[in-house]
Design brief:
By secondary structure, the protein is an alpha+beta fold. The protein has helices at residues 21-35, 51-82, 98-105, 142-155, 260-264, 271-305, 312-333, 344-371, 378-390, 396-405, 407-429, 439-443, 462-471, and strands at 2-9, 12-19, 91-93, 111-118, 132-137, 159-161, 173-182, 185-198, 220-226, 240-253, 431-436. Pfam families: FKBP_C (PF00254), Trigger_C (PF05698), Trigger_N (PF05697).
């Protein structure tokens, strides 16, 4: 084979490859000879089928395999000889001249084709010791543990009927049937039967629960309530609904004693064990927030350390993924770019920057991980896959099989594990300072308005962030694309 480089521009490489007819003929003949002892053809004894006859019967299909194998071998050789790391799979362009292709298929002519490659940029890994980040530490006070115990007790209260004529009060449970309508027309999902409503729990749309105060069993009433402006169903958001309601029962909560017997309801030996488990769970949540904020700082610092050309295909791929999600979110919410105080053009420009950051950080983390020989074990992947499957009760086996049979989907499980291990590797060398903070400080937004819940990720563009903040909604998170280059 003959390989000639025809383009070396930035991260793009192009080569012209010529596969001589004599090489094609030699490969084809060798493959056909190897088939003699394997095929069974009527009229011929095993191993005695003439190669010429095999060529007439199987020649084209075997040559197709020969060409595919030669193309794969050539691609590997180009990558190895040039010392390249590919951003995506090579793009092969065969000649448009059908006569040339037909001649190659018969091994009667050379086959010339082009290979287009997009390579990953080369850059040096900076010294981590110069990275300075702060880990915020919040010590959970005893009062918060007590509040958590009280909430647990409230959530597990038993309720008993108050009796005939008893009026519902705040804290009571009212069992109701209702049918909701807007402008006289019933809406989907607006009806319920034997629905328990805990007055004061804020489990229903604003105003619904309060209008049940004073209700008695058997009473029929009309409840008027308005769906929040940011309600999940766009067709209901901000609209006033009328609920024809029948009160079927009024129940009062029983007293709950927080003791060893109460703890045993949750599989604990005693109250002390329940407090320990609850305290660890609360601390774990705050530690996760601290970790996200720490990771945000680290990624921001890394992003500022590196400047290099980004593979256009990875940029396009990443931006397209982000933009599809943006369009889906806007369609579901019923909002427009004007609602977000921006334009489509401005939003695209902002999301291009986000895509660039994600690709850059993904490449940096992948390179750091490779240099540090960071490995993700099969056990770690299996553990994460089990957790993913648990998110779909009743469908665990289907989820498990899906990921196991789809390498690309499984890579999406592996990538976050790899990323976290690389972050840990960097933190071992970086200058990490611990700082005691209050709960409010830990949960506060950073100075750019990015909430700590998205600390390890990119947020919406600035104008969209402001709009989301007003609505009280949580912005979507974006993470570096380490799986694109691992």
């Amino acid at each position: 084979m003959q390989v000639t480089e025809t383009l070396s521009e930035g991260l793009k490489r192009e080569f012209t490859v010529v596969l001589p007819a004599k090489d094609l003929e030699e490969r084809l003949t060798n493959e056909l000879v190897g088939m003699k002892d394997k095929v069974r053809i009527n009229g011929f004894r095993p191993g005695k089928v003439p190669v010429g006859h095999l060529r007439r019967v199987y020649g084209r299909s075997v040559m197709a395999d020969v060409l595919q194998n030669l193309v794969n071998e050539t691609n590997r050789k180009i990558v190895e000889d040039q010392g390249l790391k590919l951003a995506l799979e090579p793009q092969i362009v065969f000649p448009e001249n059908k006569e040339e292709v037909e001649a190659a298929m018969e091994a009667k002519g050379d086959l010339s084709y082009k290979v287009a490659l997009e390579v990953l940029p080369k850059f040096e890994i900076a010294d981590f010791s110069g990275l300075a980040v702060t880990r915020e530490v919040f010590d959970v006070p005893e009062s918060e543990l007590s509040e958590a115990l009280d909430r647990l007790a409230q959530q597990n209260r038993q309720f008993a009927t108050k009796g005939e004529g008893a009026k519902a009060e705040k804290g009571d449970r009212v069992v109701v049937d209702f049918v909701g309508s807007i402008d006289g027309t019933e809406f989907e999902g607006g009806a319920g039967t034997d629905i328990p409503v805990d007055i004061g729990s804020n489990g229903f749309i604003p105003g619904f629960e309060d209008q049940l105060i004073g209700a008695t069993a058997g009473q029929q009433l009309t409840i008027l309530a308005t769906f929040p402006a940011e309600y999940g169903a766009p067709q209901l958001a901000g609209k006033e609904a009328s609920f024809a309601t029948t009160v079927k029962d009024v129940q009062a909560p029983s007293e709950v004693t927080i003791d060893d017997e109460f703890a045993k309801q949750f599989g604990m030996d005693d109250l002390a064990a329940l407090k320990t488990a609850l305290g660890e769970a609360i601390a774990k949540d705050y530690t996760a927030v601290s970790r996200r904020k720490l990771k945000r700082q680290l990624l921001d610092a890394l992003d500022g350390q590196y400047t290099f050309d980004l593979p256009p295909s990875l940029m396009t791929q990443e931006f397209d993924n982000i933009w599809r999600q943006v369009e889906s979110d806007m369609q579901q919410s019923g909002k427009t770019f004007a609602d977000e105080e921006t334009t489509e053009e401005e939003a695209r420009a902002e999301y291009q920057k986000i895509a660039a950051r994600r690709v850059r950080l993904g490449l940096v983390l992948a390179e750091i991980g490779e240099k540090a020989q960071v490995q993700v074990t099969d056990d770690e992947v299996s553990g994460a896959l089990v957790e993913r499957a648990r998110q779909f009760p009743g469908q665990e086996r289907m989820v498990w099989d899906f990921y196991r049979k789809n390498p690309q989907a499984l890579a999406e499980i592996r990538a976050p594990i790899f990323e976290e291990k690389v972050i840990d590797h960097i933190l071992e060398t970086a200058n990490v300072t611990e700082k005691k903070v209050t709960k409010e400080e830990l949960m506060a937004e950073d100075e750019e308005g990015k909430p700590s819940a998205a600390a390890a990720s990119e947020d919406k563009p600035k104008k969209a962030r402001a709009s989301k903040k007003k609505a009280g909604a949580e912005p979507a998170a974006e993470t570096p694309v380490t799986n694109a280059s691992e």
